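okkk here we go again. third time trying to get the flavin-adenine dinucleotide bound version out, last two times i messed up the smiles copy paste (missing a bracket lol). double checked this time i swear
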Amino acid sequence: MRIPLGRGGSSPLWSNWARSARCAPARLVRAAQEQDIVDAIGYAKSRGLRLRAAGTGHSFNPIATTDGLLLDMTGYNGIVALDPTTPSVTVRGGTLLRELNWALDKAGLALSNMGTLEEQTIAGAISTGNHGSGLHHAPFSGHVLGLTLVTADGSVRSCGPDHEPDLFRAAVTSLGALGVISTVTLRCVPKFNLRVTEGSRPLDSILEDIEAYAGSAEHATFSLKGWSDNASTLKLEPTDAPVSPDAARLRRANTLGEVRCATAGLAGRVDQRFVQRFMTAQVGGDSGPADYVDVSYNAFTFPQPVKFLSLEYALSLDAATEAVRHVHDDVKRFGLRTPYSITVRFSTGDDYLLSPAQGRTTAYVNITVPRTVAYTELLRVFEAALRDHHGRPHWGKAHTATAATVADLYPGWKEFQDVRAELDPDGMFSSDYVRRVLGSTRGASL
Ligand SMILES: Cc1cc2nc3c(=O)[nH]c(=O)nc-3n(C[C@H](O)[C@H](O)[C@H](O)COP(=O)(O)OP(=O)(O)OC[C@H]3O[C@@H](n4cnc5c(N)ncnc54)[C@H](O)[C@@H]3O)c2cc1C
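finally!!
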């Protein structure tokens, strides 16, 4: 049977980046233009299939999986319009952040903030509530000035703060549950360099006044190992200084750090004591804490080829001190060591109904572990502690939250469900994951 859509065909297995979620969709279709999205929705509807859009699969959980029609958005990419006066850029939903960064750079522009990854799609980033760090910066959603969404009836709806604002508040961070994001318009800033400064200090000295630490640089982060009471600090500050000659090498050191963690994880399978020994040993070529200048998007991000699992919760900044002590104590006590760090980042609140940062200045607390079953229990212990502090799960990371555990944490939960019931009455964009975290669409037949 011909699928009247872009390129496509019957499906191979699809899996996410971490290989922690897989599916065998009834159909895998690659969108190359907006009409392909409209056609895919029409096709899925006519066959009684559910549909999920997929970006690059950089979410750690099955959020993008389906047994229905999987719409691969990565071929639907590129710049639609760039307005240097606003400045702003409109991109297709499947555009990678990396591609966007390069295009903006050429135009003398940049995004003001981002996380550590630039291999994911713009639509995937906003749909899962991506963020970087910065007490005075919103999560990635804060760049969004408007978007267009193809809904279950095949119509293309545009929305922004001044046009269909209720739809906009629901759609920016919507887990792919309201429709397929076709284009996104993002606010930009003139391109800039960042000074990257690493350091180390006692954890207690940060937790004495965590807000002061968070505000001590434009983009401040700290991280902890389970066996140490010292925190590693990372501060990024805008600067007029030129890019350092050794910037590329120092950026690569982050990648090598992850290779070292993965190797320590393997050694830990033989004997757990090797993890800490391997991570604390002085290695030839260690150049100590870095201090260098790089172009903003290279300073924010680094290549991350080594696979791992991450779980992250967004907490009110007021709750962060207690929560960090709680998880650090739990991780210290836990028999199994993870070679990776617990990482704490910050953002302002935003006003998107399902954004983990909705309505509160936020501290994000993340733990990363090797991808082996042995670490599942550590993730659960960590997650339980963060839930005690009213944490909201990062929608794209490895969590076990359900609609029952998260609904009360979102004041706009009912409003979101009303929009969902109106846009997707039959549950076309639902899936096992979506039903778990959002419940069924009211009256859904799929
Ligand atoms: C190595 C690594 C580093 C990471 N670093 C960070 C970090 O620093 N900060 C952070 O916040 N997160 C981070 N993450 C999490 C990750 O960035 C997000 O979950 C990711 O952005 C999702 O983008 P994606 O393109 O991979 O989307 P996918 O994982 O493929 O999909 C995610 C969701 O988006 C939906 N979606 C995708 N495209 C569309 C569309 N066009 N329309 C509607 N819905 C769509 C899917 O249906 C699904 O619900 C990291 C993940 C990895 C693996």
